[in-house]
Design brief:
It is built from no helices and 11 strands. The protein is mostly beta strands and 127 residues long. The strands form 2 sheets. Strands 2, 4, 5, 6, 9, 10 and 11 form a 7-stranded mixed beta sheet that branches.
Amino acid sequence: QVQLVESGGGLVQPGGSLRLSCAASGFTLADYVIGWFRQAPGKGREGVSCIRISDGNPYSVDSVKGRFTISRDNANNTVYLQMSSLKPEDTAVYYCAADYRSYYCSGSAIYHDMQFWGKGTLVTVSS
């Protein structure tokens, strides 16, 4: 059974850091594009970062570039999102997703309709 489970969310003060984890079971993460998405209250879902299959290179949207880092631990079948310099506008439910189509993470875009999704973890940035 394919499953993605996010963890690591919580309450953090502005300027703080958190590391989110996305643990996969039922398939090998290294063979899939992995994306992190978020949905803030009352807003649509936004692609944040993704990591490619072919070369493992990451892509992040401009709003988080330089603050968020996506990485993959193939041995543990886990993907991480290291978030630093957090802002109140980063408050959202964060989801990880996976898709076998390599073009779903390019150097300029993250496709939203990925095949597999986790249930999300809430990140709240507030003082």
